[in-house]
C-alpha cells in the first residue's frame, strides 16, 4: 500500500474541500484512521469513512476494554447516552459529541485499545532504535510538549509512545482475529503514521496483514510519517497549545 502514497496524497488534498469529499479506499484488512483530536471535521470524516468501510469492529484509542464493554448491542450510540455511560467527562478527551457519530456509523462492536497491555514481547520494544530515529522521536516529543520537558526524560516519553503503538497494534490484530476483516482503528495521527506508528508495529509481527493508513492534516499541512492517504481540513479556532506549559 505504501508505494501509492504520493499520488494518493495529491488526490485527497486536491479534492478534500474541508474534508467533505470521500476518497476511494484501497482494499485492506485493517484501516488505521488518524486525527487531530480537537478537529471536529476530522471526526466527521472518520464517521463517513467508517460508514463506507462497514467494518466488523472499530477499535478506539480513547477507550479501555471496560468502557468498550459497556457499549452493548442495545445501547443507543449518541452523545447523550455514551457520555455518562463511558464517564467521558473525566476522560480528558474532547467532547463525546465528536466521537459518538463515529460509533453510531456502524453497529459493529466497539473495542478499546487503552488500558493495561498484554504481552508485547514480539514487538521489539527492548531493541534500541537507530540513533537518527531516536533523535527524531525525542525532538518530536520535545516540540509537542512545547519544550517544557527536561531532556533527560525525553527517552522515557519515546519509550511510552513505542509501547502504545505496539499495544494499539496488538488490540487491533486481536479484533481482526476475532471478527475478521475489515477492522478500523481510530487514533491520533502520531500513532497512525506509517513509518514508526501502529502500521509499522503491525508489519513487524504480522507482515502479511494488509493495512491502509489514513492521516488527516490541517490547512494543507501534511502530518509527518507518511501513510497511504492524507486528507485535509480547516484547522479549528484554538488557543496557543503551549499556554498549558507556561
UniProtKB/TrEMBL annotation:
It comes from the Bacteria. Keywords: Lipoprotein, Signal. InterPro entries: Cofac_haem-bd_dom. Pfam families: Cofac_haem_bdg. The keyword Metal-binding does not apply. Residues 1-19 form the signal peptide. Residues 24-201 form the Haem-binding uptake Tiki superfamily ChaN domain. This is ChaN family lipoprotein. It comes from Jannaschia ovalis.
